[in-house]
Amino acid sequence: MNSIPIFLSPELNYLRTANGFSAKDKKPFFNQWFSESAINEYKDIDILSTHYKEIGYSSPNAFIFHTSRCGSSAAVNYFRALENCIVVPEAQPISVFCMKNNIKIDDWETKSRKGLETIFSLYKNFFCNQSQNLIIKFTSWNILDIKRIITDYPDVPALLIIRNPIEILQSCMRRHPGIVNMQTDPIMTTNIFGNSFHDLSTNQFLVRMIGSFFQAIRDIVDKKKKFLILDHENLNTDSMVEIQKFFNISVNDKMAKESLNFYSKNHGNENTIYSNSTPFQVEEIGNELIEYIEGNCMENYTFLKKQSIH
Fold it and tell me: Please, what is the average pLDDT of the chain?
């Protein structure tokens, strides 16, 4: 089998045609056309990759990985406010090529790499002008593929946003992330996490999921020089300006401050845009789950937190 579903986002602004899709042909009222079209699935990776050969390879300017519910949306919106940045957040085609698919695909490693190259190149060549930077924000569970991605793109600077696992769990308990649905598919869960987790409660599954994210980061911290770690509580104007410089993007301090102040939940405190709610969340989660978090997450989080920029 050599096909896999790829849903081209309306943001991509491309036409789907019988012979592939034309990246240059724009359609008026594209969003409406796309939502009404019965043909919004693109299956053949080999055909898709022919466009990569035509337009040439272009690498993104920066990557953002995150552990979920950690302030990554505020960071993305910060960069979106900059005229010289285009941010692609959690695009489905990118996630498709990051996952270890539960369908047998011939030569999956090669095809998934080719797929990522193609999608990145399409976004870069047709979304950005020459003065704009392309920033890719991955879906949280794409971090499980971070080792391969940073190996394939060693020159692309990467930001890794983390948060206290207790706070992540509390947020996920209040509003379940979509990845929870994977627990009902033991084959997919095993392919992605290396374990089916079929015998765990939903909250225990969330803890193990969060723990796997932190382990994936811990496994690569000594293998890539071009990355920064940012803890959720250190997300402020100074840290974002430092990240912007690290991404080699021109800095506008006034715009940075205005952008982050808009999202701040902790007005008057320049150290962080977020308030510290950990004590309340510890009480709400309960001691049993806290112990489960400590056994699966806290050692790696504590190690990574020490390396966070401020």
Answer: 77
Rounded to 5°, angle at Cα 205 from 201 and 210: 150
Residue type, 73: S
- Summarised one tens digit per residue, pLDDT across range 214-250 is 999 999 987 656 899 999 989 888 898 899 999 999 8
* Domains of the chain by residue range: 57-309
CA 199 to chain centre: 28
CB 164 within 8 Å of CB 278: yes
Strands 3-6 and 42-44: antiparallel
Q: Is the pLDDT of residue 31 over 50?
A: no
164 in Cβ contact with 301 (< 8 Å): yes
pLDDT tens for 65-123 read 999 999 898 888 888 888 888 898 888 778 877 866 544 566 777 778 877 887 888 78
Give how far the C-alpha of residue 19 lies from the chain's centroid of Cα atoms, to the nearest Å. Answer: 31
Q: Please, which residues have CB within 8 angstroms of residue 237's CB and are 6 or more apart in sequence?
A: 253, 256, 257, 260, 270
Start-to-end C-alpha separation, the chain: 48
Going by DSSP bridges, is the β-strand pair 85-89/133-137 parallel, antiparallel, or unpaired?
parallel
Determine if residue 159 is left, alpha or beta; phi over 0 gives left, psi from -120 to 50 gives alpha, anything else beta: beta
Over residues 273-284, the pLDDT tens digits come to 555 555 667 778
Architecture of domain 57-309: 3-Layer(aba) Sandwich (3.40)
Q: Is the pLDDT of residue 23 over 50?
A: no
Backbone angles phi, psi at 181, to 5 degrees: -65, -20
Q: Mean pLDDT, to the nearest integer, of 9-13?
A: 40
Buried b (16+ CB within 10 A) or exposed e, 123-150: bbbebbeeebbbbbbbbbbbbbbbeebb
